[in-house]
Every structure is written in structure tokens, then in C-alpha cells.
Amino acid sequence: MLAAGRELADGLGGRLTALLLGHNTQELAATLGAADSVTYVDHAALADFTPDAYQRTIAGMIKEDPPRAVLIGHTSMGMDVACSVGIQLGVPLITSCRTIRVEDGTPRYVSVTCGGKVMVEGEIPGPTCLVTMVPGGYKPEAGRREGAPDPSTWLRTKIYELAPPTELNDLRVSLQRYVEPEAGDVDITRESILVSVGRGIQQQDNLKLAEALAAALGGAVSASRPIVDKGWLPTSRLVGKSGKAVKPRLYLALGISGAPEHMEGVPDCETLIAINTDERAPIFDAARYGAVADVLKLMPVLTEKIKQAKGG
Amino acid sequence: MDIVVPIKFVPDLVEEMEIGESGKALDRTFMRLIPSEQDDHALEQALLLKERHGGTVTVVTLDAGDVDETLFTAVANGADRAVKVRGEGFDKGINNHAASAVLQEALKDIPFDLILTGTQAVDDLDGSVGPLLAARLGLPYVGYITGIALEDGKVVARKEYPGGMVAEMEVALPAVLGIQAAEKPPRYVVTSLVLEAMKTATIEEREAGGADCSGAAGVTRVYLPQAAERARMLEGDANQVADALVALLKEHRLLS
After folding, report:
1. How far apart are CA A236 and CA A1, in angstroms?
2. How many Å apart are CA A235 and CA A295, to the nearest integer?
3. How far is A156 from chain B, CA to nearest CA, in Å?
4. SS3 helix, strand, coil % of chain A, rounded to 5?
């Protein structure tokens, strides 16, 4: 996101400011090196994320000094606040933006929609616009200054510490507690072989086929969002935006279409092999090898052949 | 507790997407529309809350085309009221800013304590209906919710963070919550009950007039992505593909 902001600020001849909200977390400002300055807002009500307090603070900051564009992460936090900030300030909103570029002095967005199957382009309207950014358009390194965070970076980045621009009382949402994920299940981030299943397995019963294949390969079964939402596998097995980023030597994606939310979890997989009945599935754009096939037919055949190969 | 569930219709991504002649929108001529999957979860969560605490569930949708069956199915599943809002251009698709403004108007005479809707939909480009509607109504919003408990006129909602971490947030009512997944998978209803609902239930129809689509950015081009690199494809039937895969796994030393 800092990389996109840098490109936009440089293209328009403007400045890039990072806005950091929290309580006693000023040291995090040092990690925002690609920005020209960091504005840090400290308040006890901002210690943990709640949509109410964060949205009021961000809206207040934008109102005081409206920038040309405000980039917000397209995350479970960012998407709780972006819409209300936009409506409250009467500012347009673009979501799922992957890249930003400046063409003839006009900033333009490219957003990804329909599970990665469709791209949408247009101008980022002025005078102020909100944009939520999905990963995948920039390398994270591009948003960091070399060697950051270290004391020299710290000194080069101007940090302005402010109080919230608005009262943070009468909040209607409050954090009660965090619940850690249940331990004891397989840790998919440590597996070197993952057999990952998606909507294409069709029925809960068919998970057995994936389990058998994973057992033959000496790996574990992971899944995309629909499988977890159906309650077929626990959240601990979820790969992607709301789950885990995995880095196995082999990632066998079975019946997974490759929506951007899922692909966020797999960029560090060494070898990605995808099997899907839809030859246009976006997963084939990221996979090293692919096959258009019915995973339900393929899984038992493949399991047998792997057993034979290992036995022989 | 009275709950409203707005349902959004979205393109069925199983079908091929085609670009319209203008090059600025999807071609909707043959597009199959289905209710957004997360909205199904929102309805399920609403029905679970009704079973536990009583009250009513009202489903509301914009008339994007063939929406009646979905509304009758919701009634067959346990919803008390079904509302369909007609308006100019709804069949061609209106953005979420416009949809949330239409819903805000429709909700003026529908009492509610809680609005549950999907956290997002697959074709969102200008935010999502839930948080936009919350902002228009001046109500609190929390999204990515996977469970709701009701305690003393407040709800405690389980909000999911990446990696499986959950934050339990207390939210004052009335409120809007964006559902990622219901506590249980959405229920299925037998066709006979849907047919019965079609005979006995009534869909309340409203007229909204036009839709104000401001608040979203303009679109100059819509296109299907062309990947710079694509997977090396293995050809053949299941048997041949399996053979090719075993050979690949051997080559990459993944069978040892």
C-alpha cells in the first residue's frame, strides 16, 4: 500500500503521509519508511481496533486537511471503516484496487472483481477519493525503505504526534476480548505438502478422497473459504486472506478457482499445481502446472498411482 | 428481536463472464444472477437468532430480475416477510451506493433491531451494501462476523481476523453486522415447502423510482485479465493426468 501511495504521490508531485492510529505504539512509525511523514494519532480508545473509534478518527483527519487520495487496506479492519468514512464525508469510494498509476497527470485505478475473473479501470475522481487496496499489485519491499526499520530511518521520517481530531466517547462498538485460534489441529503453515480443496469437491463426503491423497503424499489437507464456511473443515485449515499464508514445497489446489482472497495465502508455495473443471479459472494464471479435470475422478486414481510409485 | 436481511443478486461466477459492447460493463444479456452466498449466511444467522430469541426476520431485495424464488425460499426457511423493491435500471445492475440508498428508503417503515447482510459480494467495486447502509442510517457496523450472541439489549459479535484470531465485539443496537459465515451452514429446504410458500406467502412490492449512483468512481474499461504466464497444462483423461502428475512429483522429488 505504501508502494502504491509512493507511486501516486510521485506521479502527482505530492507528498505521501502515513496515518498510524494506536496507543503507545509510536515505534511502529519506523516501519512506514516509504512515506514522507507519519502522522501518529494516540488515544486509549485506539489501542485495539474497533470500527467506531477508527472510522471517526480517520474521517476527522481527512476533513481537517483533505488529501487527493486516501488508501486503506482492503482488510477485515479497512473494510469496516472505508464505507462509513466515504458516506460521512461525501467522498467517492473505490474498492478492491490492485494497482494505481498516473497517466498525463490523472491518477487511475485498476480493480479486480468477480473472484479475479474481471478487471475494471477508471479515473480516481477528485478532489478527494477513498481507495481500498488488495495485495498483489506491488512487492511489499517497494513500500519499505532499505534497511528499515532502523534508527537512521527513524530519524529521516518526520513523525507528527496528534490527539484525535474528534471526541472518542459514546462509542457504540467495544472490544470485549480476543479469542486465540484453537490449537491441537494440524499447523498448515508448517506442512511441506498441502492438498488444498475448494468448492469443486462438492460434498463433505468427498473430503475422504482428499484425506487419502494427502496421506499417500505424506501431507495435510487445507481448504479455501467456502469449505470452511460450510463447516466441513475448521478455520485452522483455511488458506488465504482470512486464513493463513502457507509455504509448502507442493500445493495441490483441487477444485479451487483462485479468487484473489485465496491467492493471498499462496505466493510463497514452491510448486503450485491446480486441477479445476473450469479452464478459465484464475488459479491457472498463478499455478506452475495445471489440468482441466474433475477432481472427484482424479483424486482416487492419483492416490493409487502415488502409492504404487512410492511402493515401487 | 426484529431482523432485516437485505439480499443482493450477483453474477454466477460458474458461468463465463462477457464484456458488453460499451467495453465499460459486463454483458448482462445472458448473465445468470444468484443471491450472494454471504447473504445466504446472513439469512441463516438471522433464522438462528429468531429460533433462540423470537422476533421476526424480513428479507428485502432489489428487483434485479428473477428474485421471487429466492424470496419464497427464504419464507419457506422461516422468514416472516419478503419485500421486493422495484426501480428504474435495477435489472441492469446498480452500484452499492445506490442500492444502500434504496434500502435506506425501504427500511423507513420496516421496524428492526438488527440488519444482517453479507460482509461483501463478489461484484463489489464501491464498498459493500452492509457498511454503506449502516453509514446512511447512522448505525454502528462490524463486518467479517461468524457468530452472534444476544445479551441485555446488546449483541456480542465474533469478528474474524486473518489466521483464525477472533475479536468479540460488543455492539449497541440497532446495528448492522456483515456476516462472513453463519454459525451453521445455510439450511436447505425441500421444494414442496417452497412451492407451498409460493401459494400462501405474499411478496410485498415497493416502488423506488430511480437510483442515485453517485459515490462510486467512473469506469473507462472492463476487461478479462490476460495472464502474462499461465500454468503448463497437462492434457488427457483422469488416468493420463494422474500419470503426468506422478511423473512431475518424481521430477520435483516430492515422492520420497
Report:
1. 27
2. 22
3. 32
4. 35, 30, 35
Residues A289, B248: C-beta atoms closer than 8 Å: yes
Instruction: Choose among B16, B17, B215: nearest Cβ to A86.
Output: B215
Q: Which residues of B touch A95 (CB under 8 A)?
A: 124-128
pTM: 0.91
What gap in Å lies between CA A145 and CA A36, rounded to an integer?
Answer: 11
* Local confidence pLDDT in tens for the 312 residues of chain A: 899 999 999 999 999 999 999 999 888 887 887 888 899 999 999 999 999 999 999 999 999 999 999 999 999 999 999 999 999 999 999 999 999 999 999 999 999 999 989 999 999 999 999 999 998 888 877 776 544 444 444 445 677 888 888 888 889 999 999 998 776 678 999 999 999 999 999 999 999 999 999 999 999 999 999 999 888 998 889 999 888 999 999 999 999 999 988 999 998 999 999 999 998 899 999 999 999 999 999 999 999 999 999 886
Is the CB of residue A94 less than 8 Å away from at least one CB of chain B? yes
Exposed / middle / buried, residue B16 (Cβ in 10 Å: 0-12, 13-18, 19+): exposed
How large is the ipTM? 0.93
Residue A140, preceding peptide bond in cis (omega within 30° of 0): no
Answer yes or no: are the C-beta atoms of A102 and A43 closer than 8 Å: no
Q: What amino acid is encoded at B207 in this protein?
A: E
Residue in B162, B166, B224 closest to A241 by CB:
B162
Q: Indicate the DSSP class of residue A76.
A: T
